[in-house]
Amino acid sequence: MPAAPRPNPDVRGNRRLFGVLGPSTNTVVQPDFDDMRVRGVTNHYSRIVVQDAQAISDETFMAGTLEISRNTIDAVRGVLTCNPDYLVMGMSAVTFYGGAAGAQTWRENIEREAGLKLCTGSQSLIEAFNAYGGIKRIALISPYYPSANAQVANFMADHGISVVRDTCLRCPSWTAIAQVPTANLRQELKLLDGDDVDAIVQVGTNLSMVKLAAAAELYLGKPVIAINTATYWNALRQNGITDQLDGFGRLLADF
């Protein structure tokens, strides 16, 4: 159902209340989004309850993400009780599944249940590419397994974007994603870079790369886009909030 009318503006979220949906095992999205929060916007995290998957394989990764997808509606119902203005998806894998058509259907199903618009990571990356301009070939880094990276590549192809090469970190559990050392990620970015890619893209919202991606843009001289940055930037812009922030890369500083 739509947000109930308020007799007065929310004293902290007088511009927008964001309902953020994220897996209960995710420890990165909530602080990342709060770091990018601007005056008058507040984030209200609703946990998609899921067990911390262990000994993940290519097959069980896909099964685990689909479990998160199935449990999303319960998290939506929970966060609707605070009457948010807008929903933001803090889990990216399922938002790529089924290509452009599958991603749209998934988003519209959530929007229909909630009566609110939903910002997803997959669509936010396309909006980010459009903002930067000239991005047609990308390198991809994820905590996923190859089957999920293939879904990302399929989604990108539907939008005219080619994944030239990719890295799957194959993290062994959901919580282990948040434990990948920054030094490892920095090395992976160097291996992925090349004159044949226009940008480097990171997906997987529990992988902490907001600050590293911003720094890497400076020393690599090209867009390096973290999924959490793209998603929160797009959520702000879709709500007409154009505040610019330094320290999170060109998306929030320039566009």
Description:
There is one protein chain. By secondary structure, the protein is α/β, with parallel strands linked by helices. It has 2 domains: 16-123 and 229-254, 3-Layer(aba) Sandwich (Rossmann fold), CATH 3.40.50.12500; 131-227, Rossmann fold (3-Layer(aba) Sandwich). The chain is built from 9 helices and 8 strands. The protein has helices at residues 29-35, 58-79, 99-114, 121-132, 146-158, 182-192, 210-220, 227-238, 250-254; strands at 16-23, 41-48, 86-89, 118-119, 137-142, 162-168, 199-202, 224-226. The strands form 2 sheets. A 4-stranded parallel beta sheet has the order 2-1-3-4. Helix 1 (29-35) links the parallel strand 1 and strand 2 (41-48). The chain starts with 15 loop residues before the first strand and ends with a helix.
Mean of all residue-level pLDDT scores: 94
Write down the secondary-structure element order.
Answer: EHEHEHEHEHEHEHEHH
Q: What is the CATH domain class of the largest domain? A: Alpha Beta
So what's the overall shape?
Answer: globular
How many separate helices?
A: 9
Largest sheet: 4 strands, parallel
Strand tally, please? 8
Assign the CATH topology of the largest domain.
Answer: Rossmann fold
The poorly predicted ranges are none
Please indicate the percent range of residues in DSSP E strands (runs of 2 or more): 15-25%
> What would you say the CATH architecture of the largest domain is?
3-Layer(aba) Sandwich
Class computed from helices, strands and strand pairing: alpha/beta
Radius of gyration from CA coordinates: 17 Å
